[in-house]
Design a protein that fits this description.
The structure is a homodimer.
Chain A lengths: L3 E7 L1 H4 L7 H12 L2 E8 L3 H14 L2 E5 L10 H8 L4 E3 L1 H14 L5 H4 L3 E3 L3 E3 L8 E6 L2 E6 L3 H20 L5 E8 L3 H7 L1 H5 L6 E7 L2 E8 L4 H18 L3 E4 L4 H12 L3 E5 L5 H7 L8 E6 L3 H6 L5 H7 L4 H14 L4 E7 L14 E7 L4 E7 L4 H21 L2
Parallel strand pairs in A: 1-2, 1-3, 3-8, 13-14, 13-15
Antiparallel strand pairs in A: 4-5, 6-7, 7-8, 9-11, 9-12, 10-11, 15-16, 16-17
Chain lengths: 414, 414
C-alpha cells in the first residue's frame, strides 16, 4: 500500500489565473516517481480559513501534505501564521535560518529590515529546511506518523529544497520497498499504433511490471514500473526493454529523463558532429530548444532565421526562381536552406523549417499548418512535408519536434 | 456579493505530473475577469469515488462548478458516467451532438466506430454544448440555481466552448452588475519601487476602484477593477489612468492584454520600422517570442544566432581583436552585433544579446548570469549590462524580456 500525498498550492495570484502553477505539477511527478500516490492537488488563495480547513482535510486523508507558497515577508503571506495556529504553537527565532538570511543579504549587499529578519522566526514544533537561494525557510512538521511540509512558492527555491532534502527524507520514511521506473522514449508514432505494435510483448509482461503509455506532444513515453528496486527487478526490467527494443527501435530516441534535444545533442557529441539551423516558420523556437540543452555550444554552431524571402535568397542562397515558382513553403526551398546553412555556418548537419504557422498566410493549396522540413549532411539532402493544425503556437511546437525527429532519423541511417 | 466558483480538473495524467494543467489556470483567469470569485481549484484522477465526492463538496460550497477532462471515448474516462450517477439519471442520444460527431468524421474521412457514437449519448438532464473541433460534447447542468458544467480536457476545445457559450451564459446568469478591469503594464521597475512612486495616487483612489499589483518575470502589471461596467465607471477609471501615467510613463509599455513583444510589434508597425535580431546566449528565444506575435513578418525581418565566436566574426563582422581582448560577453561585442545585424539583414533596428546563461562558462569577473544587450538604429548604438542569477532557463527568459525593454526605451527617445 503506497503512502498517500496531497499537494496544496497557496496564493491569490495562482487561484485567480495570474500565475501558472507549475509547482504542484513538478511535485506530483516527483512523488509519483518515488512511488508515493498523489490523491489530490488543491489550489487556494491567501485566506486564513481556507488554508486551515484544507490543511485539516488533507491531513485526515493523506500521510504527506506538501504546501507551497505564502511564505513571503509581507502581510498578505499567511501560510506561516496559519501553521502556527494549526499546531497551536508559537514562533521562535531559528538560528540557522537567521544566519542564512544574513548571508544572503550580505552577499547581495542589501540592507536587512525587520520584515526580513522575521522570516527567521518559525513555529516551535517544526524543523527548518534550508533555502540556499532565498530568505523563506522551509518547514517540516512531524505529526503522529504523518508529515506536513511547507515550502516557498518560488519554483527554483522549492525544487532545490525538494531535491536536496525533502524527497530523500520522504523516501526514507514512507517508501519501504522502493519503486523502480524505466522510461522508453519514442517519437513519430501514435499511442494506439504503438500499442498495436507491442501487443504481444505487453501481454507477456510479468505481473510485477506495470506498463504505462504517456503521450505528450508528438511523442509517446513507455514507462515500466516495479514496486521494488532490487537488482533482480532491475535486471528483469532491462531484459524486457531489450526484448521490446528491436520491435520499436526506429521510434526510440532515448531513455529515462532524456528529452529529444538532449538526445540529439548526445548523439552529435558522440560522433563529433555539429549542427546548424535555418528556421523560418518556427522563428527561433527550434534553436531555443536546442540551446536550452546545457553545453549545447559543444555541438550547436549557430542558426539563422530568414523570416523574409529576400533573406532566404541573399543570406542563404535560395534562388529567386524557386521562391517565385514553388513559394517559400516548398521542398526545393527547405532543401536549399538546409544545404546552404550547413555550408554557410560550416557545420556537419543542416536542418531547415519553412511553413505557414498561421493565423494568416494560408491558401487552399497550402493551408495553415503546412510545414516543410529539410535535412542535409555531407552525403545527402532530404525533405519532408507535414500538415499540422490551425493554431500558430501548436504548429510552431510540433514543427520543432518534427525537425528533431528528422535529424534523428537521418543520422541513424549514416 | 460575487458568485463563487470551483474548478475541477480530472485526469490521472494531470494528477501524476505527466501533463501540466493549463486549463484551470486559464479558466480561473477568465472567471476572475468576469467578476466571479474562484474559491478553489482541484485536480483529481480518473477515479469514480473521487469525482463524486469532490463534485458534491464543490456543489455545496460554490454557485458554479466547472469540470474539465475525462470525456474521451475510452473506458478510463469516467466523468460522464459519474455525472449520470450523480444526477441519478440515464443517458439519451443527443441529436445535435450526434450530427456534430458525424460531420467531424466525414470531414476527416475517418470511419466511425461504436465508441465514437456513444459520445453522442448524454445525461438526460443536461444541455449539450457544441464542440466544433472535437467529438466530446460539453454538458451544462442547472441544479437549483447552481450550475455544473463539464468540458473536455483538450485545451483548445475547452477554450472555444468557454468563449463561445459558457462564459456568456455564466455572465448573463451570475454577473448582475458586470465588472470592469483595466491593466497598465510596466517593465523595468520592481513592485515595491512602483508602489512607492504611485503611493499618493493610490491613496486618493476612490473606494469603488480596486488596485492590484501583479508581478511577473521582469514586469509588474497594475490592475484597476470596478464592480460595475457603466460608462461612468469606465470614464472614472480612464481618468485615474490618465492621472497616474505621467508619473510612471517611462515604465509603461502597454495596456490590458498587450504583452511586451506585441507592444514592440505595434510600435514598429505604426512607425513603419523593422527589426533584426542577433542573439547568442538567448539562443533563439528572443526571436521565438518575437515571431510568436501573429503578423510579426510585417516588422520582423529576421535573426541570426551566432552561437560560436567564429560566426560572430565571420557572419557579423565582430573583430577578432575585440573577441580576444574583451571576450564574447562584452560591450563592444554587443554593439558590433547590433550594428552589423541591422546592416546585414537590412532592418531599421538591430538588437543583440550575449551572455553567460550557465551552468558552465562563468568566471570570477563574468559569473553565470552576466548578460550584455546592444541596440542600434540609424542614429545611435547603446549597450547595457545585466546581472541575472545562476539558472540557465531563467537567465535566458529574463534576457529576452530585458532585450524587448531595451528596444522600447531606445525607440521612445527617437
Amino acid at each position: 500500500m503506497p503512502a498517500k500525498a496531497i499537494v496544496i498550492s497557496i496564493g491569490d495570484e495562482i487561484l485567480y489565473g495570474q500565475t501558472l502553477d507549475t509547482n504542484s505539477h513538478w511535485i506530483s511527478g516527483e512523488l509519483d516517481n518515488l512511488g508515493i500516490r498523489v490523491l489530490k492537488k488543491i489550489t487556494i488563495g491567501d485566506t486564513k480559513t481556507d488554508i486551515l480547513s484544507n490543511l485539516k482535510e488533507a491531513e485526515e486523508k493523506a500521510d504527506i501534505v506538501l504546501l507551497t507558497g505564502g511564505l513571503g515577508p509581507t502581510n498578505d503571506d499567511l501560510t506561516k501564521p496559519c501553521l502556527t495556529e494549526y499546531f497551536n504553537t508559537h514562533l521562535v527565532r531559528n538560528e540557522d535560518a537567521y544566519e542564512n538570511i544574513k548571508e544572503i543579504f550580505e552577499k547581495a549587499g542589501w540592507e536587512m529590515n525587520e520584515s526580513n529578519l522575521q522570516q527567521a522566526d518559525l513555529p516551535a514544533n517544526c524543523t527548518a529546511i534550508k533555502n540556499s537561494i532565498g530568505t523563506a525557510s522551509g518547514m517540516w512538521f512531524d505529526t503522529e506518523g504523518k508529515v506536513i511540509v511547507s515550502m516557498p512558492g518560488v519554483p527554483f527555491e522549492m525544487k532545490q529544497m525538494m531535491t536536496d532534502s525533502i524527497l530523500p527524507r520522504l523516501k526514507a520514511q514512507f517508501v519501504s520497498d522502493g519503486i523502480y521506473h524505466r522510461m522508453i522514449r519514442t517519437i513519430g508514432i501514435g499511442e494506439s499504433k504503438l500499442a498495436e505494435l507491442i501487443k504481444d510483448w505487453e501481454d507477456q509482461l510479468p505481473n510485477e511490471i506495470k506498463l504505462a503509455y504517456l503521450p505528450t506532444m508528438g511523442a509517446v513515453k513507455l514507462r515500466l514500473t516495479a514496486d521494488s528496486d532490487t537488482d533482480l527487478v532491475k535486471e528483469s526490467i532491462q531484459k524486457q526493454i531489450d526484448e521490446v527494443l528491436p520491435i520499436i527501435e526506429k521510434y526510440v530516441y532515448g531513455f529515462d529523463d532524456e528529452e529529444i534535444p538532449n538526445a540529439i545533442g548526445r548523439i552529435l557529441q558522440e560522433r563529433g558532429q555539429t549542427l546548424a539551423i535555418a528556421e523560418s516558420c518556427t522563428g527561433g523556437y527550434l534553436s531555443h530548444l536546442t540551446t536550452s540543452v546545457p553545453g549545447s555550444s559543444e555541438w550547436f554552431r549557430g542558426g539563422m532565421i530568414p523570416y523574409s524571402n529576400d533573406l532566404k535568397r541573399d543570406q542563404l542562397g535560395v534562388e529567386e526562381k524557386i521562391l517565385d515558382e514553388d513559394g517559400a513553403v516548398s521542398e526545393p526551398v527547405v532543401l536549399a536552406l538546409a544545404e546552404n546553412v550547413r555550408k554557410t555556418i560550416n557545420a556537419d548537419i543542416g536542418i531547415s523549417v519553412s511553413g505557414i504557422a498561421g493565423p494568416g498566410g494560408g491558401t487552399e493549396q497550402k493551408p495553415v499548418g503546412t510545414v516543410w522540413i529539410g535535412y542535409a549532411d555531407k552525403d545527402k539532402s532530404v525533405a519532408k512535408k507535414f500538415r499540422f493544425i490551425r493554431n500558430r503556437e501548436i504548429n510552431i511546437k510540433y514543427s520543432a519536434i518534427a525537425a528533431f525527429n528528422m535529424i534523428r532519423i537521418n543520422l541513424d541511417k549514416d
